[in-house]
Amino acid sequence: MRALGSGDIIYIIMAVRWTLLLSLVAFLGGAIGGALVALARTSEFKGVRIVSAGYIKLFQGTPLLMQLFLAFFVPGLFGWSVDPWTAAALGLSLHASAFLGEIWRGAIEVVPRGQWEAATSLGLRYWPKMVLVIAPQAIRIAIPPTIGFLVQLIKGTSLASIIGFVELTRAAQIINNATFRPFTIFALVALIYYVICRPLSAYSKRMEQKLLVAAR
Amino acid sequence: MPATAPPAADHALGDTIIEMRHVDKFYGDFHVLRDIDLSVARGERIVICGPSGSGKSTLIRCLNQLEEHQKGEIVIDGTAVHARLKGIEDIRREIGMVFQSFNLFPHLTALENCMLAPMKVRGIPKAEAEATARKILERVHIPEQAHKYPIQLSGGQQQRVAIARSLCMNPKIMLFDEPTSALDPEMVSEVLDVMVELAESGMTMLCVTHEMGFARKVADRVIFMDAGEIVEVAPPERFFTAPQNERTRKFLGQILHAQTQAH
Ligand SMILES: Nc1ncnc2c1ncn2[C@@H]1O[C@H](COP(=O)(O)OP(=O)(O)O)[C@@H](O)[C@H]1O
Ligand SMILES: [Mg+2]
């Protein structure tokens, strides 16, 4: 055992970049996947709706930790060995796709029927109707819960430490194993998560209030 | 109402533009349209009335296939339409539709509402789409509201923008589904005036409305629907003075009573 030095603190703080990078990649992957899931859930084809609903149920009904384990081990069964970074990015992206897909499905369905009908009656096809009429209205509604989920996702990246990906939480564990100053170290880590997540939560709340006022 | 369209017999009608033959529609087990036969000539103006739930909206929504019919044939300007028709959008863009609840796009200004479909559906360049939109907003008497968002407009103004939005597509047919029912009474006439002017321009129009003054003034034929059937079709003069069917008489009694009460 050794003393906790300023180098250790800096090591922990620097590990934040992996937390942020993983969050960003998972969020972008989840945004692409989530858009597809949301469109599939609102599709006019029943089969597509059923499959996407199953996907959402699967990921919402199992722990994120299990999803990360599977993302780490399942590719190996097919002879594709993945490093912890790839597994974490993949697992979190699939996870985020399900949750964002469900959030955005709700937002799409809140856009009144009349908007679809007006756009359809003007002769707009599916994609221009979605992109120019429905999405701009759905996005406004979706922003607060989307940011709310982003906060969950950032905190969720800490689970990637278990499959050996060195981000903020994992870095803290490593330093703690060497110095055994758990209170100082994990208080610092909690503070860092708080500083990242709190403004996002506050922003999401404010947006939600604004939408409520606008809806009146 | 200041404007008057020439009475029915005074304007020439063209060839058949809408043909419905033995059309049936069901919602599940519920038989909502029963054996509808209707043929509309180019330039003709039709008013459809009838009690709530009689299938008026459903009938006109079948024309642009917002609703699918299960039996019979609907032919629009020479093309038989059904929901799975490839290129149904090409039919829809020739049919303007005005809704009771306006359904303007809330994130776009009045002008942008009018430009969207011409640009994205017809591929008209922006400058030209804007010029047309401004001209048509003038035609519905609200050029000064072009840059406002729907929420900043009164109901009557919103409905006129909705009419303009449809007209910007230069449609061959205009469908109206109770366009004045959601309006405060003082705004009804500004919308009806625009519709009368549109009728004068020779547009083929099908209007679901209970505005009997409008029907008398512009309709070539008035259709009375009840329980999913077309019960009576007649020129307005005969429709209002000598309705043949007992159900029509009863309905007219109620509607005229309600309207004299209101005015
Ligand atoms: N999507 C739907 N599903 C089931 N029933 C419907 C649907 N839309 C309308 N109906 C029913 O069909 C009937 C006719 O409706 P509608 O055409 O809107 O009548 P109207 O416009 O004459 O008031 C009503 O009884 C209504 O309840
Ligand atoms: Mg109706």
Automatic annotation (TrEMBL), chain A:
PROSITE patterns: ABC_TM1. Gene3D superfamilies: MetI-like. This is Amino acid ABC transporter permease. InterPro entries: AA_ABC_transptr_permease_3TM, ArtM/GltK/GlnP/TcyL/YhdX-like, MetI-like, MetI-like_sf. Its main location: membrane. The keyword Transport applies. It is found in: Cell inner membrane; Cell membrane. It comes from Bosea minatitlanensis. Residues 16-204 form the ABC transmembrane type-1 domain. The chain crosses the membrane at residues 20-40, 61-80, 178-196. Belongs to the binding-protein-dependent transport system permease family. HisMQ subfamily. It is a multi-pass membrane protein. Keywords: Cell membrane, Membrane, Transmembrane, Transmembrane helix, Transport. The keyword Transport applies.
